[in-house]
Each structure stands twice: as C-alpha cells, then as structure tokens.
Amino acid sequence: MLQPSRLLLYLLLALLALSIAAIPWPDALNEPWRIALLLLMSAVALDAILIWRAPQTMQAERHLAGVIPVGVESTVTLTLRQTGTLPVRVTLFDHYPVELHCEDFPITLRLAGRQGSSLQYRIRANQRGSFQFGRVEAQVGSPLGLWRRTIWLGAEQSIRVYPNFAKVSGYALLATANRLSLLGVLQRRRRGEGLEFHQLREYREGDSQRQIDWKATARMRKLISREYQDERDQQVMFLLDCGRRMAAQDGELSHFDHALNALLLLGHVALRQGDAVGLMTFASDTPRFVAPRKAKSTTSLLMDTLFDLQPGKLSPDYLRAALDLTTQVKRRALVIVVTSLRDEDSDSLLPALKLLRERHLVVMASLREEALDLSRQTVDTLEQALQFAATVDYNQRRAHALRQLTASGARCLDVEPAQLPLSLVNRYLELKQSHAL
C-alpha cells in the first residue's frame, strides 16, 4: 500500500499557494504554474512506479523470551537485514499485544545496501495470560521521498505472561539456605522434638538429655545428639477463590495476583519440606485442578496451570467447592482456602469448613482490603465521617464472622494482600512444628 509522504504534501501545499498567488496576475504566473505542475506530477508518477515495482529486499526477525513476568520490563530485539543494493529509509511499528505497554515506537532508521541492523525496545506486561504479537509493519521511503510503501515483515509470535516469580524465588532462595528468619518467617527453635530422625551431630547447649545418643557418644568420646525433623510426605492442598471479589486492586496487583504469589511461595517451601502440593480453584468459568504431587516440577506445573487464570464474575460457592475437594482428595491434607471474606459469607462458609474438617486440617486465609484500615482514614467532613462509621460497622460484622469461623475449628488468617505470602508460610511452619497435620 502506498501513502503520500510529508514531503509530497508540502510540495502540493506549495503548488496550491502558487495557484492562489497567480489569481491577481494570471498572465505572468500561468506558465510557471503549469511547468511546476507538470514537473511535480511527473516526479510523483515516476517515484510511485519505482517504489511499487521495487522488489522486497527487507527481512525482519523478532527475538523475545517465550515467558515474561507480569509488571516487569522485558527486552525485545528486532534484527533487520537489507538485501538490496540501494539505501533505504524505514519507519518501524511492531504490533505488540495491547496488554503490553511500550513507548518506543515509531522507530526510524536508515539502512545502507546489503546492511543489517539490530534494535531493542522495552515492554511491560500489565496482566498475566497468553498474548500474540502481530507482524512488524515497515514504512519504506521511495527513492525521491514522495511516497511511503507499507510492507509486513517477520512472523506472528505468542508470548506468555506469568506471575512475577522473581520475588517469590528470592524468598525460596533464603528458605532453601535455612534462613527463613530473614524473610520474617517465625521459625521456632526446637531440640529433638520432631517426629522423624534427621541426623547425628555434636551436642549443643540446650539439647535435652533424651536427645543424647549414648552409643554414639561412647564411640566418638564426646557428646552426640540426635536431631529430628518435621514429618514429611504430607499433603498441602490450595482451594483458591476465583470470584469477582478477588479482582479488587491492592497497589499494582489485584488480590488474586497476591494470592498467586502466596500460593507459589508456600508451594515451594512445602515441596522443600518433602510435602506434596496440589491445587483446586472454584468460582471460575474454567476450573483448574492439580492433584497433590512432590515432583520438582510441581512449581512449574502450578505456574503453567494458573498463569492465564483471571478472577471472574461469579460468587463463591464454598459448599460446592468443599464437596468437590473431598471427592478428589481422599488422603488427609492441609487445606488452605484463599478467599476474600464478607460478613454475609459465614452462613455458607461454616458448613463448607465443617465438611472439610471431617478429613482435613483447614486454614482459611481471607484478604483484607486496605480501605478497611481505620488508621488510614481522615475525618474532616460529614461525608468522611459517614464513611468512617460505615467502615467501623462493616469491620465489626466481618470480625464477628471470623470469630464464628474460628469457633467452628477453622484456623483463620485475616491479612492484607501484601502480607499473605509470609503469613501463610509462618502458619504452615507452625502447624508442621506442632504436628497438627
């Protein structure tokens, strides 16, 4: 497709100005106007023929990672090759998905004959999912610069946007190095109180006498203690709410994205502890299920399962979710329900938790909105006072619902979304150390 260049538009405007100027003196300027018109039309026609008949001599190839994290800038490289002998001036537009953010286009450059060039631009994904890059649009200038020809280069490509696992993997690195306390994880120190033998080591101050291995002590001629670890080969099952409430925003991330980060972190820690990890979603048009498994690839499987899942418009049916989970998971497990609790939920949530507790240990984690924090609210006007009073009333009813759930035997967490990952890991380690599972 041919488009007039800015130069051609300027020349036409100049010709129009010459025509207007010729009105008072038609005899004097009529002949120059005709000559200018003839020359311009000839140049326009010749330039159009040259660019239209010119062979396609440009090639483009896009290089990008197949998977990028949400909310983080990533680099895309375009490699251009000009196989013709004539120099070319080209303006590029890469048709990246609308779900990605980029401010680098258009890009204009000049390629000499038989020359290649590479350029980079930055993209930032605003949401998770699978998206499609279109082809690269190149607007090539004609030899005289009067026309631009649009050509399409390269191929379409798909890209996956995953949860930002960088921070989660940072947590995991500390966890695997036995430095959970640096994360804010409350790891209680115990002396030989686990259920499974781990290793023999030198006696340390604070070890109990029943922890001393007397045979090894006699053999080594120094005090040797037995060290135990928490019981392994248990199951952790996530029951993830995908309903409309989880779409609420908390900073740059939604409640649902915070829940995914918490799920991935705790899943990694549980796998390192030797436990099996699984997942079931509810209140979703596209429910997902991962049976509990201990393989090293489980974290990757969870990310592959969840990366394109978004909170929908359904309301959570807790009892239906509990029935589905008890049907799928027969062996006792630590079931972690991640949701956004409302005060009216207690009537439906109580029987669901009761059903789950018949076989499983249940932890319910509810995400609390920042707007419910009264310390962050100012009261200077009547409207603000009414809002404050409504928040107080809502918090009281919500706290009553949480007390009902706790009284039923469920272990409840009520935290802001950003605090959920560490809160869940703390609770998991606490339950492991108390042998509640």
From TrEMBL:
Keywords linked to the UniProt accession: Membrane, Transmembrane, Transmembrane helix
Any Pfam family matching the protein: DUF58
Transmembrane intervals: 32-52
Top-rank lineage group of the source organism: Bacteria
Residue ranges occupied by any VWFA domain in the UniProt entry: 233-406
UniProt-recorded name of the protein: Uncharacterized protein (DUF58 family)
Source organism (scientific name): Chitinivorax tropicus
